[in-house]
Each structure stands twice: as structure tokens, then as C-alpha cells.
Design goal:
Blueprint (H helix, E strand, L loop, with lengths): L6 H20 L4 H8 L3 H8 L7 H11 L2 H7 L6 H5 L12
Helix pairs in contact: 2-3, 2-4
């Protein structure tokens, strides 16, 4: 059984949803237009924008792509774009990392 997300994770989901809503508005799109372009329902857009953590990850990526922020999202998670990642770049990664 999965444990419920922490406050920090729920807060991040809410912030990301709100930021995607702002991107949609900056692009001059209605929720319906964004839904059609992303191939999802308007209700799902509302869930994304409200920070619903149960929204499928690929759905978030599709919305980000339509809004033109997918590349920035990918770059934001690139470990080699951080000081820590660059400092560790010369070290080999383990074959398998246990979770």
C-alpha cells in the first residue's frame, strides 16, 4: 500500500498545476482548447491545473508539450545541469540502484 504524499509533494503538485494554468492563459488558450490539443478531456485539464496528484505522468508531459514548456521541464530534471551533477559526472553510476 502506497503511503500518502507529503505536504511538500502535494504543495509542489499544486504549484506546478497553477503554473501550467498561467502558461495556458499566457498562450491565450481556453481549457477546452488545451484539452483538444493535448488529446485529453477538459475535466483532466482541470485536474492537472488543480494539482491532482493522480493525473497520469504522460498527461502532464502532453500538456507541457502543448504549452511549449516540455523542453524546460526535461532540462529542469537533468542532473548534469546542476553543480552536484556536474561534480559527480566523472564518477560512474552504479549498475543497479535499489529503491
Amino acid at each position: 500500500m502506497a503511503r500518502p504524499p507529503s505536504y511538500k509533494v502535494r504543495s509542489a503538485a499544486s504549484d506546478i498545476g497553477a503554473q501550467l494554468r498561467v502558461w495556458r492563459k499566457l498562450r491565450g488558450l481556453t481549457a477546452q482548447q488545451l484539452a483538444e490539443r493535448a488529446g485529453i478531456s477538459r475535466a483532466t485539464i482541470q485536474r492537472v491545473e488543480s494539482g491532482d496528484g493522480a493525473v497520469n505522468f504522460l498527461t502532464i508531459l502532453r500538456v507541457a508539450q502543448v504549452l511549449g514548456v516540455l523542453d524546460a521541464l526535461v532540462l529542469a530534471t537533468d542532473p548534469y545541469e546542476t553543480d552536484f551533477g556536474r561534480a559527480r559526472a566523472d564518477q560512474s553510476l552504479p549498475e543497479r540502484v535499489r529503491q
